[in-house]
Amino acid sequence: MSAASDKAKERTLSKYGEAMRSSLGFNRTPGTPAGMAPPSGSVAARMAGVVNDREAAVIEVSRIAPDPDQPRRAFDDEAIDRLAESLRTRGQLQNVVVYWSDDLGSYVLVSGERRWRAARKAGLPTLRCKLLDRPPDEADRLALQLVENCVREDLKPVEQAAAFRALMESNGWSTRQLADALHMAQAKVVYALGLLDLPEELRRRVDRGELAPRTAYEIGRLERPDDQVALADRVSSEGLTRDDVIAEVRAAQAPAEPVSSAKPASASRSKGRGGASSSSKGRGGGRLPTSKSFRFPGGKLTIERPKGLDASSYRAAARLLLEQADRLDPPASDGSPPDPGADPSLAA
């Protein structure tokens, strides 16, 4: 502190008296608030490295609104009741994250909707919030909500799969890129996405816990939705295991996989350059290829389906390939995907 500053304080003291000494900070440790003793001993150790967070604020619960794009669609009432009781007895242990919306005239939750709902149920007037200076972009907001939900309390399987797909679409990611971003095995992402191709009734059974997600994934390999539902019914009525389902699916698919490479004359077309294939009519009268070849370093992969290769056909083939890759090169024990550098053909 400069001598000029000390002289200015002394002049103020002489004018207003000794009552000003404490508020002006004389004989205080720098940084100690007026009226408080200098930190010493355990207090000094406790406060070392502690900095106030200027981006946090206490906001009225009524001025906070949920994010309409939150990936979680359903909240367990019993879990919210338990959290409300915890807030009443133990207080808020973790800030929620919000930003201000001029359009809504309120703060919008980025993460922490469970705590907000519990605070309303507990009758709390305010919540401690981490303030963002601007709305996060869609991908960042969804990623933050998804990661937080997966860590704190898993989303229902189909909700999680929908959030995975939304993240992939908003970022233009492959399943490998999403798995890397979320630090999970690529196969887990593929299995989850497979649930979105199931009939709505089976998706509801999965979310209600009546059908295991991995078993539902295996059922999804059947082409006809009616067959999928029928096999799911047998899982409930006969107690079929996942291995039983795999065997049933293989048996059902066997007649549809002829050994001969001959194709029906009515569906054939002459091949063009690059391994073009015969085709079949798809939705809306358009024709779908019945065979498709993909080249990779040192080899070629061909997919065939007499009825035509639609999106579900490619997804089914991708799942089979990933399963085969996992059998040859299992994910690491920590759940991380295989190193794509080990084999160029595994790179995304």
Automatic annotation (TrEMBL):
One of its GO terms (molecular function) is DNA binding. Residues 1-13 have a biased composition (Basic and acidic residues). One of its GO terms (biological process) is positive regulation of sporulation resulting in formation of a cellular spore. Residues 1-40, 251-309, 322-348 are annotated as: Disordered. SUPFAM superfamilies: KorB DNA-binding domain-like, ParB/Sulfiredoxin. Keywords: Chromosome partition. GO terms for cellular component: chromosome. The keyword Nucleotide-binding does not apply. It comes from the Bacteria. It holds the Pfam family HTH_ParB. Residues 57-148 form the ParB-like N-terminal domain. Residues 254-269, 330-348 have a biased composition (Low complexity). Belongs to the ParB family. This is ParB/RepB/Spo0J family partition protein. It comes from Tautonia sociabilis.
